[in-house]
Write a structure and sequence with these properties.
- The protein is mostly beta strands and about 70 residues long.
- The chain has one helix and seven strands, in the order βββββαββ.
- The longest helix is centred in the middle third of the chain and has 7 residues.
- It is globular and about 40 Å long.
- The N and C termini lie far apart (about 35 Å).
Length: about 70
C-alpha cells in the first residue's frame, strides 16, 4: 500500500508495524558525495538537530546512521 508519492519519496506500509520510506539519493556538487534526506520524525526521535554530527557505517548491504 503506497501512502505517499512525490518525485523523491515513496512511502509504503508493508504490514501493521512497519512503514518504509524509499528516498532517491541525490548527488552533491563536486561529485565526491551523495546525500539522503532523513525523515524529520527519525531525526527528532534521535534528538538530532541542525549542526549535529552523526556516525555512519556500512554493515553488509545496509548503511547505519547513529547519533554521535
Amino acid at each position: 500500500m503506497t501512502l505517499e508519492n512525490n518525485e523523491n519519496i515513496e512511502r509504503k506500509q508493508v504490514d501493521d508495524a512497519n512503514v518504509y520510506e524509499y528516498r532517491k539519493v541525490q548527488p552533491i556538487v563536486g561529485g565526491i558525495s551523495f546525500s539522503v534526506i532523513l525523515p524529520k520524525s527519525y531525526a527528532m526521535n534521535l534528538g538530532l538537530g541542525k549542526g549535529d554530527f552523526v556516525k555512519v557505517r556500512q554493515e553488509g548491504q545496509s548503511i547505519v546512521i547513529e547519533k554521535a
